[in-house]
Structure formats: structure tokens, C-alpha cells
Specification:
There is one protein chain. The chain has 6 helices and 5 strands, in the order H-E-H-E-H-H-E-H-E-H-E. The two termini are about 15 Å apart. It is of the alpha/beta class. It is about 40% helix and about 15% strand. The chain has a 5-stranded parallel beta sheet with strand order 1-2-3-4-5.
Length: about 190
């Protein structure tokens, strides 16, 4: 591998991590620590609250909300966000999971056929939860094939850039984070 190839493999992930950390607002919750709760029920949110944690990271699945093109069911996330808010927990909603109708690849992990549909979904989610979702993440562990079947550049150019643009169209003041890798250089990652 050439020096420029090595530099590219190191610099791009570091730049993306740095961008996600720039200008973070002061913590809104009592604690800056949180738990990854996926799609929690009230019992799990009670445990987080009683653990004196201030944040929950939830899986915000495009495939669950829009199982068929143009057919939206936000009820799961309406409940989760309201339940977290009732417990004074800040929400980091990590959007991901391509619906089967939107990809030629595997449902959940395949690259969206039309990144405009991905961006549109992000644009719809942001204003719906404005003021209730403290931060938006863009895809879970895109460096692992079990979560993302596309290339690094498909993630950066499509998921990250177009997803952030969609969120900002829906809520210009939204905090957008990404990527959320498993670990740079970790098993199965790159």
C-alpha cells in the first residue's frame, strides 16, 4: 500500500470523528453518561433513570417506520421518545436500517438504491422530534459488514452527507453525529 493510501485510511476516519465532536453543546441532562438501549420499553428506561444516567441511545430504524414506500408508522418512536422525555433522559437517535423496498442488497444493511429517499426520511424524522431528540446519529457501526454492506465512500457520500443534509433541512439546529463505528481497526472493522 502506498503512503497516500495509508494516509487516506487514517486521515478520513480521524477527520470524521473530529467533525462529530466540534461544537458539541453543553450537556442537557444531569449526567453526561448514557446507555445503548436499542428500542426500549418503560422498564429499561426506568433502569437507566435509576442508574443516574442522563442519555439513551436508541436504534431508529428506517425499515420499521417506513416498511413500504410512502407508508409511515412513527408510533414506536413516538412512544420511546415520549417515555424517555418523561424520565428526563436525553435521546441520541441513531438512524439506519434500509427497508427491503429501498435497496437491491440485504434488507437492513444494503445500500439505499436512491440516497434521495434516505435523505427524505431523515428530513421527515428531524422536525417530528425537534426539541425531543437531542442528537441524531447516522447509521450503527457502518464499518462492520453485518450492519453496512456498502463501501466507505457510499457511507460518507450517501448516508453521512446526505443524511445530515436531510436532518438539517428538517431541523436546522439539530445536532448530527457520525459515524458511530464499532472501533477503528477492531475485529471486522476497517
Amino acid at each position: 500500500m502506498s503512503f497516500s493510501g495509508v494516509r487516506h485510511r487514517v486521515v478520513v476516519p480521524l477527520v470524521l470523528v473530529a467533525v462529530s465532536l466540534i461544537a458539541l453543546p453543553a450537556p442537557l441532562a444531569a449526567s453526561t453518561y448514557g446507555a445503548n438501549v436499542h428500542i426500549p420499553d418503560g422498564v429499561l428506561l426506568d433502569a437507566v433513570q435509576h442508574g443516574n444516567l442522563g442519555w439513551v441511545r436508541i436504534d431508529f430504524l428506517w425499515s420499521l417506520v417506513e416498511p413500504a414506500r410512502g407508508s409511515y408508522d412513527w408510533s414506536t418512536y413516538d412512544r420511546v421518545v415520549a417515555d424517555a422525555q418523561a424520565r428526563r433522559l436525553e435521546v441520541l437517535a441513531t438512524i439506519g436500517s434500509t427497508p427491503a423496498w429501498a435497496t437491491d442488497g440485504a434488507a437492513g444493511t444494503g445500500v439505499p438504491r436512491d440516497m434521495g429517499e434516505w435523505s427524505d426520511f431523515c428530513r421527515r424524522a428531524a422536525p417530528r422530534y425537534r426539541g425531543r431528540v437531542a442528537a441524531w446519529g447516522l447509521w450503527n457501526e457502518p464499518n462492520l459488514p453485518r450492519f453496512w454492506q456498502g463501501s466507505r465512500w457510499q457511507y460518507i457520500d450517501g448516508i453521512l452527507i446526505q443524511g445530515a443534509a436531510g436532518i438539517r433541512l428538517g431541523d436546522p439546529r439539530a445536532l448530527v453525529c457520525g459515524p458511530g463505528p464499532m472501533a477503528l481497526g477492531g475485529p471486522g472493522g476497517d
